[in-house]
Amino acid sequence: MAKILVLDDVFDAVTLIKRILQEKGHEVFAFTEEEEALDYARSNEVDLAILDIKLKKMSGVEVLEELKKVTPSIRAIMLTGYPTMETARESFKLGASEYCVKPIDKDELEEKVASVLGDV
């Protein structure tokens, strides 16, 4: 199964995503601080990043840009409670594979993760 990094500034959101994906057999590493997530990715293999677009210090798009420098092949799913065409376009331009709108729907998340990882 995949090694998945989850970054959201809301602790309950990362906890929920972690629980959903662990039930599917994935290894999930959850963070609420951008720098901690980036430090982890710099020294550990990560297959997929699930990133909230609105964070504390950086945007999820900026985090994705940094992750791509470390691991160009990393796949990403962006999360947002405030969907706009601009953020979607920017995310896809940087290599995000999917976009999920909050609140998180368990089935939608599982389907998108499986699709991005090629399990479907």
| Count of beta strands | 5
Class by alpha and beta content: alpha/beta
The overall number of domains is 1
**What kind of sheet is the major sheet?**
5 strands, parallel
What is the H/E order? EHEHEHEHEH
CATH architecture: 3-Layer(aba) Sandwich
CATH topology: Rossmann fold
User: How are the strands ordered across the major sheet?
Assistant: 2-1-3-4-5
CATH level-1 class = Alpha Beta
Could you state the CATH homologous superfamily? Answer: Response regulator
H/I helix tally: 5
Shape: globular
Secondary structure layout:
Layout: E1 3-7, H1 11-23, E2 27-31, H2 34-43, E3 48-52, H3 60-70, E4 75-80, H4 85-93, E5 98-101, H5 106-117
Parallel strand pairs: 1-2, 1-3, 3-4, 4-5
Short description:
With 120 residues, the chain is α/β, with parallel strands linked by helices.
Mind explaining what this structure looks like?
There is one protein chain. The protein is built from five helices and five strands. With 120 residues, it is an alpha/beta fold. It has a single domain, classed as Response regulator (Rossmann fold). A five-stranded parallel β-sheet has the order 2-1-3-4-5, sandwiched between helices. The longest helix is centred in the first third of the chain and has 13 residues. The chain is globular.
